[in-house]
């Protein structure tokens, strides 16, 4: 029987997920298979988790990458004696952690305490028979185990606990939301069901580590790191893995060779541009994955894009992956969002709720197009939280003021400097609850003057648009770029209409009556496409929105006319 997320059941939910109260700064904990290291709460009484919660973005990534280097992935038959498996693996070294999941069969992720245990296991593993297919003799950390004597090992068989790698269906989510006591609890449920689990994060870093094994054959000092939603605390179960090939260690090596009577350097291939070098590197790595990579399928080399990349499916982990080269600014964006996500528990709950709402109503889409991206939508939530009184999160300029020398980053001429130590950032005095913030978010952007104003997270205030794109969100670092330039006027108008409708529903609904009628209420009501339930009401509230296109065009003409007159006077 389903439990209500209120009363005694609410206490149970709190055991899985810290529900934010007024002014709470702790993170929501994972309810599925344990909490991810960077997502743990920072409450003073929780000694074991405080040190983890205070780690910088770079420290967490380093630990995760090291963890992945000590990890293997094993495919098993459907029936397995878990105890005997662990006993065998322990003969090669201490097993620090493990879990089972399903991806084209049953798999186990095994983390050893020492990297040497992997070499020991590899020495005991044989090469597949070439009787049916010829094999490429690349010894990876992907193994297949089969039972030598299946009948005898089926004794004492118990079902394996499989870690879920995708979020629950929308229908099941709405049923859960209807059992909650209030909208704030509903928003925490969405976060709990959609956020990355500890196991899923481990799989993402392992996928990067396995690609690194190939890259190191050509570039021994290189690393492959995830960026974006996999590491910024806003990743959703089922999302792709963005990764990049990093050569920063090569640059550090060059600075060490300054002593002695000689200037010493490697003889290396020289190419006319960095872009050409990137394309050549990705072309070779892409071919390597395609021809020799176990489980790497559907490899596509997209080398003429603004940011060249290789797309592929990594079947052992079940991820769709995008590989690029030295994406330094994207990494800084990931760290910025990581900091915002760590500062206050309400930040992530609001982002996950708004993104879930946007997807239901077709405002976002996984395919490229003219709609708002998840990144743009996340930035809009951050801007809204900067605009609260008092602000819930600081502006980028305020984070820059707290930075010291080690935080200084100038990348391609762009200032990407901000503080990395979370302890230097003062907690907010804002005590607004999640339900209030959700309604206020819809109110704010339902009435935002998109015709004149742009969204600037560096300043944390509305500024005049530098050009006439329907939606203008300044790139936090590359300030000459609009991250929402793809969004057209109809898509923006649809967003405004949905925001207004959602604000109206939250303000006017009668929760008690809806529960008596067994109707979805609160957030659950917002996650049902509006056209199915209240299309006539929505049409009335959409009046006037279409005319904004005309007003926008007229304002644009007036602006262009005024600029022309100023230029004429200047001449």
From TrEMBL:
<dbReference type="GO" id="GO:0031123">
    <property type="term" value="P:RNA 3'-end processing"/>
</dbReference>
<dbReference type="InterPro" id="IPR054708">
    <property type="entry name" value="MTPAP-like_central"/>
</dbReference>
<feature type="domain" description="RL">
    <location>
        <begin position="56"/>
        <end position="124"/>
    </location>
</feature>
<dbReference type="GO" id="GO:1990817">
    <property type="term" value="F:poly(A) RNA polymerase activity"/>
</dbReference>
<dbReference type="GO" id="GO:0005739">
    <property type="term" value="C:mitochondrion"/>
</dbReference>
<feature type="region of interest" description="Disordered">
    <location>
        <begin position="23"/>
        <end position="54"/>
    </location>
</feature>
<feature type="domain" description="Poly(A) RNA polymerase mitochondrial-like central palm">
    <location>
        <begin position="183"/>
        <end position="341"/>
    </location>
</feature>
<dbReference type="InterPro" id="IPR002058">
    <property type="entry name" value="PAP_assoc"/>
</dbReference>
<protein>
    <submittedName>
        <fullName>PAPD1 protein</fullName>
    </submittedName>
</protein>
<keyword id="KW-0460">Magnesium</keyword>
<keyword id="KW-0479">Metal-binding</keyword>
<dbReference type="InterPro" id="IPR041252">
    <property type="entry name" value="RL"/>
</dbReference>
<dbReference type="Pfam" id="PF22600">
    <property type="entry name" value="MTPAP-like_central"/>
</dbReference>
<dbReference type="Pfam" id="PF17797">
    <property type="entry name" value="RL"/>
</dbReference>
<dbReference type="InterPro" id="IPR043519">
    <property type="entry name" value="NT_sf"/>
</dbReference>
<dbReference type="Pfam" id="PF03828">
    <property type="entry name" value="PAP_assoc"/>
</dbReference>
<keyword id="KW-0808">Transferase</keyword>
<feature type="domain" description="PAP-associated">
    <location>
        <begin position="436"/>
        <end position="471"/>
    </location>
</feature>
<dbReference type="GO" id="GO:0046872">
    <property type="term" value="F:metal ion binding"/>
</dbReference>
